Every structure is written in C-alpha cells, then in structure tokens.
Amino acid sequence: MWMQKVSAFVCGGLGGAGGVLLARHLLPDSSDENRDQSKTKDESRNSVASILKYGVPSAGMRTLLEYENHVLEYDPVRRVPKWVAEHVSKEKAFGESANRKLSRFDRDPLVPPPFAAENKDFWKSGWSRGHMAPAGNNKHSQSAMNQTFFLTNIVPQDMDNNGNFWNRLEIYCRELTKEYSDVYIISGPLWLPESQPMDVESQTAKDDETQSTRVEALDRSVKDRLSVVNVQNKTETAKKEVSQVSVEGEKEAKPRKVKPPRPPKKFVKYEVIGRNNIAVPTHLFKIILVEDASMDRPMMSSFIIPNRPVEDVKLENFETDLAEVERHVGVRFHQDLDPANVDRLCLKTGCRLNNYREFQQFFWTRRLSSPWNLYNLEKDWKELNKKGFKSKELEDMYLIKKKELVEKERTKIETAQLQRESNSNLDPSARLNPTSSPEIKVQTLPPSGKPGFSAPSTTTDHVNGPPELTAAAG
C-alpha cells in the first residue's frame, strides 16, 4: 500500500518537473524576449557603427539657422536659403533705429567656407542679390538689419524683378502692419520644371515617312511576284496574281492602331553663377499670414512669382494654394494651423500693390538721385527711356547728376595729376597748365551696350553700385 503512495508521489513530482520544462519550451519567456530585443538593438548599433566607421556624412553645420528677426533653412548644395521666415510688426517695419547704408553684404560665419556663397559669385553675373527677409522689415534694430545682408538670406534675383515687382510686394507686406498687429512671412526660391512641347511637325513627318516606306515595300513585293510570271502566255494568271497581291498589300498596308502620344518630357533647368555655383531660382515664393486682436481667425495667402521682369500685373494672378508651395519646397509650413480656420487674405484685402506707374517714378527718382558713376547713370537713363517712364522731373534730375559727376571726375583727375607732379621731377613743359582743364569724356552706351569710356571707380556689380555697399530692393 505504501509502495503505491510513494509511486504516486514520485510520478507527480516527475509530472510537475516535466510540466515546468514543457512550459519553458512552449510558452514565451518575457526575459528571453527582452534579451533578444536588446541583442537586436546592439547588433543594429554595431552594424551602423561598422558601416559608418569613420563618421556620419554631414555638411558639418546646422542647416536651421536663427537670427535676431528671421529664421531660415540653408541649402548647402545650392548655396541659397531653402526658406526664410520672419515676424514683422509696425514697430519693426517703420522704426528709425537702423540705417541700411551701414549694412554690408557678407559671407555668413555660420556656414563652412566649402558650402558658402561669396560676394564675388554675384559680380558681373547679371543677377542681383535679392533679400528673402528684406532689410526694410528691420528698421527697429541695426544688428537685425545687418543680419539680413548675410548671403544665407540672399538668392540670385532678376534685377528688374528685385527692384520693381518684388519690391512692391515687400512694401505691401510692410503696409499690412498698419492694419494688423502681426504679419508672418515665409519666402524662398523655387526651381520648377518646364515641359518640352511636343514637336507636332516632326511627328507628322515621321508618320509620313513610315507610311511611304510601307508603300514602297508593297510595290517591291508586287514586282517580285510578277517577275516570275510569263505575261505574254499567262495574262489571266498574272491578273489574278496582281489582284491577289493587291488584296494582300491592302492588308499589309492597313494602318496600325495609333497609340496615344507620350506625355511631354519635363526638365528643371537653371543657371549657376560664380566659383561656388550659386543656383539661380526659376521662381520665388512668399507666404503671408496676418493676425490681429480684432480678428476671429487669421488670414493667409501664398504666391509663386517667376524670377524675371514682371511689370503691371496684379498680385492675385500669382496666388496659389499653400499645398502647391509645400509640394515644390518639400516642407510643410504652419503645421499647427488648421486650414479650415484660416481665411484667404486676398479675398478680404484684395492684395493690391501700389500703383505701378507711380512706383516707377519713385523707383527711378531714387536710382537717378544716387548713381555711383557716369556709366551707371547713363545706363539707368537709357533703360528708363526704353521703358517709357521719361518725365520732365526725371530728366532734370538726370542732367543735374550728370553735371555733378562730370565735375567730380574732373576734380579727381586734376588732383591725381597734381599729386604725380609733386612726387616726380617732370620736365617743365610736361607740367599741367594751371589755366587749362583736363578734358572729361562723358561715358555713354553705344548700341552694343558696352561703355565707350570707363570712368575711374571702384569695382561694381550689376546692382548699380559696389558689391559691398549695394543693397538690392528690400
């Protein structure tokens, strides 16, 4: 009897041990799973470390750059900003604490030299240095204005576009601060694709050539078959053969089903300038959002503008959806804003820029009032006349400035000659006659567009002044 009890106890013990072992094999062990996950992570880290043994590829800089009144994302490949964001208020836009004449275009110290743009890249390129965050939006602080002249905030921009349409758009943004307490602006460059138009004539000629080749092949086939026929003795047979060949030829010449034309090819083409290959954008974008305590919800509009001369065109013609801008930039803007709770700015305000012709008078008055030399003055006067903006006031200003520059050059030459005389032993007959005045040749632009006389001056670029001093529109 006791043997049966002992046997039952032993079997139960064995069954229990077996159950534990079975459970270990069949049921998941959380500790084992954690060890496996940890092992996987360690292996992954070891794998990445082995692949990137000598460091993670990087431009060696942060691409999100912060300044006093603007923030931007820099593109070290194209050497221009990807986007530039700013907050503008009435105090900032119409302050009196900054003077743009004290600002200088310069390389951004935050960008390593191999990925930075330089002033020399823009010289004689035909493109101006266009601000994305305008200097004119930072009149409250000289340091904030100076920071807008870093080349990280600059793109190669069409000179006429920069000084005219884009300038009017920037003025419009500043005027908004008189009605709304907060204006948020995001601007940047775009490189949009162009479709290659289908050459219909070439395609038609190709189809005609194919059809002609088929007809010629049919004629050769008929002749080859008739050559084995004795026409004199087997006329009927030949007729039947010809008839049969004609039928077969019609079958062969039956046009194939025309496939739908392929979609036109698209290309992204843009110029690069300077030693550093600064990318010239095909378009520019600007996103404007306004808020005010008197409003129930904000208003916003987005625009895409070609980087070329734009004359008397309404701003609304360039309005587009925010999603379209985001698609081209590859970035989501104002992500914390519900689009359903935003009104369209142009629908409420009309997005009206200042009068085109009135602005042209203002623009050319400013240009003619501060020429750097005779060459630039003559160049501006020629362009002004070509565009049909000549007026009595502008002509008077041109003549006054021309006379001033001629006198300035005469004085400069006289001073240089007297200085050379005092520093050298010249023959008396070669000395300058004090009663005579050196001849000053007025610089003019011949039909070729090249100056006939280059007055002594500092190096200038195409923004109407020395590259270190010239501030493009904004």
Describe the structure.
With 474 residues, the protein is of the alpha+beta class. It contains 13 helices and 14 strands. It has helices spanning 2-26, 30-51, 90-93, 142-147, 159-163, 165-176, 200-226, 235-253, 322-329, 345-349, 356-369, 374-386, 392-422; strands at 64-66, 70-75, 80-88, 128-131, 154-157, 182-190, 194-195, 266-267, 272-273, 278-279, 283-291, 299-306, 319-320, 343-344. Strands 1, 2, 3, 6, 11, 12, 13 and 14 form an eight-stranded mixed sheet that branches. Helix 12 (374-386) packs antiparallel against helix 13 (392-422). The radius of gyration is 39 Å and the shape is globular. It starts with a helix and ends in a 52-residue tail after the last helix. Residues 17-23 and 446-473 have low confidence and may be disordered.
Instruction: Tell me the β content.
Output: 5-15%
Number of strand elements: 14
> Overall pLDDT, averaged?
79
The structure class reads: alpha+beta
> Would you list the SSEs in sequence order as H and E?
HHEEEHEHEHHEEHHEEEEEEHEHHHH
Percent helix among the residues? 40-55%
Coarse morphology: globular
Output the number of helix runs: 13
Biggest sheet layout: 8 strands, mixed
Radius of gyration from the CA trace? 39 Å
Note poorly predicted spans: 17-23, 446-473
Query: How far apart are the first and last residues' alpha carbons, in Å?
Result: 109 Å
